[in-house]
Amino acid sequence: MTAATLAGGPGIREIREARPAVLLAVARRLEERRATVLRCTEVLLWRRSAVTRWSGPAARAALARHAFVVDQLSRLGRSLAATGHALGRAARRLEAAADLVRRADRRAAAEGAWVDPDGVVLLPVRASLGEPLVEAHRTRLDALLLAEVHACLHEAQRAARELDEELARALLESARGSDPTAGASPGAPAGAATVRPSPPPSGVAGGVPDLVFSTAAWWRSLTAEEQRWVLRERPEWVGARDGVPAGARHEANLTLLVRAERTAYGRVQELGHDGAPWDAGERTRAQERVDGLRAIREVLARRDGVQRQLLLVDTGAPDLRAVVAIGDVDRADHVATYVGGLSTTVGGDLRRYDETFVRMRSEALQLARGGDVAIVTWMGYDAPQLREIVTSIDRNVLSSKLARDNAAALADFVTGVDAARDRPAHTSVWAHSYGGTLAGFAVLRTSVIDDVAVLGAPGMPFADVAKASLAPGSFNVLGAIGDDVFAYGWVVHGTAPAAVAGAVRLSTLALKAPASGCNHWLRPRSDYVDVGRTSVGHSDYLRSGTDSARNLVALAVGRRDLRVLQGDDERACTTTGPSLGTDPLAWPRLLP
Fold first, then answer.
1. What is the pLDDT of residues 175-203, one digit of tens each?
2. Which of 171, 364, 390, 506 has the largest CB neighbor count within 10 A?
């Protein structure tokens, strides 16, 4: 192995040919030899105490020789234990590296590609279909495949090189008689040194989420012992890391939540006791942070039989950020991610969203054909607030900057969920209001998003779905009657969602009688509209019983066949001019 290290480390071919089982077998034999040495030492110590005492030069020489033999046996036992532990650890890490190579092989094979013995990825020749939208989508999938396969292979080589150097160092220390157990944790097994795995990869993700796949590969390269150490000693390495399994992120974030609560409560007390009058703004922000943390704790503590996972808690941004999932994100067949818009906050909205999505998940499970469903409330960005319309330029809802700057976070989160799983899930994004504009920027990036639904979005950064490389029929638009943000937001946010070429318009309004229309002279629209199924205004899309909520549930489980599409009559009803905050169903058409 040392030669391989000097030559630059083991390659993919060497990892394929490696046999971790052989290392484990040697480690077991060394443990058997160590047990034999231990028994010999016990016998010597027992004999020393059992024999008749005598004195004189010969006795002193015998005791010195006895102590020397016992010391040498102890050193030998420690050396055997350390060598066996090093070999066992190397075997487990080598097996993890081999698993990464096998995962790369499986992912490539699933898309018709091939990874040769030396790690070269060969994509199949794709026949031209003459459909730009389909070919753009295929190009996106190929880019994702290459990013994931290359990340797996790169991390496998890094892990193999690291274990090669570590094993060589441990064997040399053992051969030289050094104590390789120095620094071991109290209570650790004999010969065990402190587990300190390499930190996760760093860098900024580009258009293709290389960092997400590198993180997923890094986590897979760790042994179970190393993963436990990271969760216990370095939870900040994984709590916010896209590409780490949701279960591990949840465990890490529970630790980070306690730290955040301690800091936030301390800050509120400090400002309350010693704060000056000009600290009022800081006191307000500190209290809002405490309120958000309380909301997270309250939601996680709910005992309604529904599993919840905390996938992010971030107090480093101007506003508290959090991501909370309902269901098992690591195993669900379908994962839907909701993105809120203007004025969304953790403290003010998380509880309400949680209650809503528990209901919608229950409805989705009935349509999922036996599959499991998880719904994620993604509050991973600082949503614009009403006060910032006049107090800020960069964080203003009238600017697309916040949406553009945070698009990578959303795309990487969804891609990271998929990269951390053993098998891909059907992934969808529901995005409301300004969150819809953010989602529009996110789908311009390379991601694994299968279906998108924008609800009352003010505008999109593209005029054709082909620009987003989404599959045909996967970009869905919902705009309710009386939603002025949806109808007129394009003035400051680009293309109107309804005008995007290739978009699918979904129903948000139900007529009592087909083809009856709703714009009748001197008659309120409520006479012709099924109010229970109709969403009204900007914030009514998730209400139980509405066609819009049913459409979202159908998209969440990949049932496009159950979508209710918008018809001509509905389109006429929902394009009746600005509502200006009034009830559009209560007003009749005044002109004949």
1. 776 655 555 554 445 545 556 788 998 86
2. 364
Cα 30 from Cα 26, distance rounded (Å): 6
In 176-306, alpha helices (H): 210-221, 224-233, 246-274, 280-300
In terms of Cβ atoms closer than 10 Å to its own Cβ (0-12, 13-18, 19+), residue 436 is: buried
Tokens coding 568: 């001509």
Q: 3-state DSSP call for residue 42?
A: helix
DSSP 379: E
483 and 477 in contact (C-beta within 8 Å)?
no
Residue 295 half-sphere exposure, CB side, CA atoms within 13 Å? Answer: 24
Which burial class, exposed, middle or buried, applies to 370 when counting CB atoms under 10 A from its CB (0-12, 13-18, 19+)? exposed
CA distance 44 to 71: 11
For tokens 């071991």, name the residue: 184
Contact 383, 350 (CB under 8 A): no
State what percent of residues in the chain have pLDDT above 70. 88
Rounded-to-integer distance, Cα 241 and Cα 151, Å: 15
Query: How large is the angle between the packed helices 280-300 and 346-367, nearest 10 degrees?
Result: 30
**Closest alpha carbon to 450 in 563, 358, 335:** 335
Cα radius of gyration (the chain): 31
Count of Cβ atoms closer than 10 Å to residue 224 Cβ: 9
CA dist., res. 145 & res. 419, Å (int): 11
Q: What is the pTM assigned to this prediction?
A: 0.85
